[in-house]
Amino acid sequence: TGSTRPQRLLKAVQKNATKGDPQSVISTIDHFCRRCEWAMNVGDEKGTILDSVVCEVSPGSTLELGTYCGYSTVRIARLLAPGTKLITLEFNPDFAKVARQVIEFAGLQEKVLLVEGPSGDIIPKIKEQFGITTFDLVFLDHWKDRYLPDTKLLEECGLLRKGSVLMADNVICPGTPDYLAYVRSSPKYDSKYFKSHLEYTKVEDGLEKSVYLG
Ligand SMILES: Cc1ncnc2c1ncn2[C@@H]1O[C@H](/C=C/CNC(=O)c2cc(-c3ccc(F)cc3)cc(O)c2O)C[C@H]1O
Ligand SMILES: [Mg+2]
């Protein structure tokens, strides 16, 4: 049987990137997706916006929903201060297998906890299982119809505090209309749209930054 796209992306990293060098892993994946095969990584243009918010928040605890191949996991984890953690959730075991190897190749496995399973099942267990009180930053990049239910679940589980920042990918393409309406109309959030483009294309897309007001 042939290889999958995530497996081909991993091979490109192992062949062309430098072990222990997160930037080379990021550049290799971006080059692979531009020149060989498009893949649904947040990409370099939206990634730069994400980087600036990670640096601004300088989070002690970060949650990522939807690891896929680990591209944004590496982007975020490379900017985290020593001793801080990123928990990333992925329910597809094949994607998780590739992501673990990408994260390890970048040398960031100490900062990343990849938990396999559906976010709806894992989120309610995070406090007790991982000793997290609240998340300072959440990056939403999983199935688009899960952004809203999982945001409400994070609120209900007391995993957000005054000032927690939600960064949501793809709010235009493929689009997350119910999530966008919620964070933009709810008095519990202060929301801002960062206009950009769908990864590796000229199609409009963007990130929505929503600060939880408690
Ligand atoms: C509920 C839940 N729990 C844990 N992991 C979950 C989960 N739902 C999805 N996941 C995992 O996240 C990943 C899913 C991400 C979904 N992302 C997408 O569907 C996605 C799609 C596009 C796109 C845009 C235009 C086009 F023409 C085609 C595609 C672009 C993107 O940046 C995307 O993130 C992989 C999946 O196993
Ligand atoms: Mg995305």
Structure explained in plain terms:
With 214 residues, the chain is α/β, with parallel strands linked by helices. 44% of the residues lie in helices and 23% in strands. It has 10 helices and 7 strands. Strands 3-2-1-4-5-7-6 form a 7-stranded mixed sheet, with helices on both faces. The model has no long low-confidence stretch (mean pLDDT 98). The chain binds the ligand Cc1ncnc2c1ncn2[C@@H]1O[C@H](/C=C/CNC(=O)c2cc(-c3ccc(F)cc3)cc(O)c2O)C[C@H]1O and magnesium ion (MG). The site of magnesium ion has 5 residues, from loops.
What is the fold's blueprint, element by element?
Elements: H1 5-16, H2 22-35, H3 43-57, E1 61-65, H4 71-77, E2 85-90, H5 93-105, E3 112-116, H6 119-122, H7 126-130, E4 135-140, H8 147-156, E5 160-168, H9 171-175, H10 177-185, E6 189-197, E7 204-212
Parallel strand pairs: 1-2, 1-4, 2-3, 4-5
Antiparallel strand pairs: 5-7, 6-7
Helix pairs in contact: 1-2, 1-5, 3-4, 8-10
Q: Could you report the average pLDDT, rounded to the nearest whole number?
A: 98
- How big a fraction of the residues is strand? 15-25%
From the alpha-carbon coordinates, what is the Rg to the nearest angstrom?
16 Å
Task: State the helical fraction.
Answer: 40-55%
Strand order in the sheet with the most strands: 3-2-1-4-5-7-6
Alpha plus pi helix count? 10
Brief digest:
The protein has 214 residues and is α/β, with parallel strands linked by helices.
Which structural traits does this protein have?
alpha/beta, seven-stranded mixed beta sheet, 10 helices, 44% helix, globular, binds the ligand Cc1ncnc2c1ncn2[C@@H]1O[C@H](/C=C/CNC(=O)c2cc(-c3ccc(F)cc3)cc(O)c2O)C[C@H]1O, binds magnesium ion
